[in-house]
Amino acid sequence: MDFKLFPLKIKLSSRTLITITIFYMVVIYFLTISEKVGFPGETGRLINNVAHVPIFFILTTLYLICFNSLNLFSFKLSYLCSLFLAIIFSLLTEYLQSHISYRTASLMDTFFNFIGIILAMTFYKKLFCQFPNNLTKVNPNK
């Protein structure tokens, strides 16, 4: 099935969307285990924390697009599966960092991850309900 993303009018197959999502998850994984990631100092700490918002916004949006492009579930179930996966991935990255000697897990990072997730879920639902034919063929009222 082709997926058309309003307003970009890009047609991508479900397989391509899944590949992009997995690639993005691998990039996040490597950022998670990398030793030299981020900016130094107090200002750098704020920038590093806030960077979690767009990272998880994009990841959650990719999950939403993938689930809806597959048309395997209703909109609500696809929405909940995407939310569940995003939360699990967020928690797993922080858990992984707690077991790496040169990294630390942070509740603040998790908080910013969740902000990105919530923003993506809200934005996608509003956009989906406003332009359902431009996102996928899934009916949001199921």
Number of strands: 2
Please report which band the strand proportion falls in: under 5%, 5-15%, 15-25%, 25-35%, 35-45% or over 45%.
5-15%
Widest sheet: strand order?
A: 1-2
Shape: elongated
**Could you say how many structural domains there are in total?**
1
The biggest beta sheet reads: 2 strands, antiparallel
Q: Could you state the order of secondary-structure elements as H and E?
A: EEHHHHHH
Helix tally equals 6
Average of the residue pLDDT scores: 82
Multimerization state: single chain
Contiguous runs where pLDDT drops below 50 for at least 5 residues: 136-142
Structure write-up:
- This protein is mainly alpha-helical.
- It has one domain (2-34, 44-135).
- Helix content is 71%, strand content 6%.
- The protein contains six helices and two strands.
- The chain has helices at residues 14-33, 41-50, 52-70, 75-98, 107-130, 132-135, and strands at 2-5, 10-13.
- The chain has a two-stranded antiparallel ribbon with strand order 1-2.
- A hairpin with a 4-residue loop joins strand 1 and strand 2.
- Helix 1 (14-33) runs antiparallel to helix 3 (52-70) and helix 3 packs antiparallel against helix 4.
